[in-house]
């Protein structure tokens, strides 16, 4: 079946909550904040991420979710660790809400920080890792300030009302960690994200990479550069 198109799932950018808005399809921000507010949140202290998995998930669903966490811990040599909620003041509250979404980074000072994986569409290795990386503090790759050198946004193919999902940040709003643009990033949109007609909404244009459209947003693992950025952000050895 391959990796599902996260940004063309039926409920992407939709939620039945009044306390949040979703930007870029799957990043939650408080309803009273604008798009820029959530860029100010940082990493989880000491790389420790407490979490709670709701009982609505089956045993196999829970295994897929915790396997995603274990993968990140293994890749960072346990520099980033996911632990039981316990008595921690803030934790990821992972539940099957409407859509696949997360806040970006640690946004709470106390209580549950919601993280939604709708059943069954969001229970996929690539989708789970993508959302975990949002929770760890990462934006979408194609929102980098330098993205227009690497991709073309075909606005005529974007679903009406979804154009804002293709906005980009300024250099002062995001940290690129000194890395090059990464078409293979698990945080990259697919070429047909939010397409109204099945035609590409985003295309690779950098010389020598024009054929990378088939790679964008279709990975089921962190790319090499995803891991480099993750380690830099969390000061991993």
UniProtKB/TrEMBL annotation:
Chain segments annotated as transmembrane: none
UniProt xrefs under SMART domains: ZnMc (SM00235)
Disulphide bridges: 100-122
Positions annotated to bind Zn(2+): 130, 134, 140
Top-level EC class: hydrolase
Cofactors (names): Zn(2+)
Single GO term (MF): metalloendopeptidase activity
Active site per the UniProt annotation: 131
This protein's UniProt keywords: Disulfide bond, Hydrolase, Metal-binding, Metalloprotease, Protease, Zinc
An example Gene Ontology biological process: proteolysis
Cofactor note: Binds 1 zinc ion per subunit.
Pfam family, one: Astacin
Signal peptide (from-to): none
UniProt keyword Metal-binding, yes or no: yes
EC number: 3.4.24.-
Domain Peptidase M12A: from-to ranges: 34-237
Entries under PROSITE patterns matching the protein: ASTACIN (PS51864)
Descriptive protein name: Metalloendopeptidase
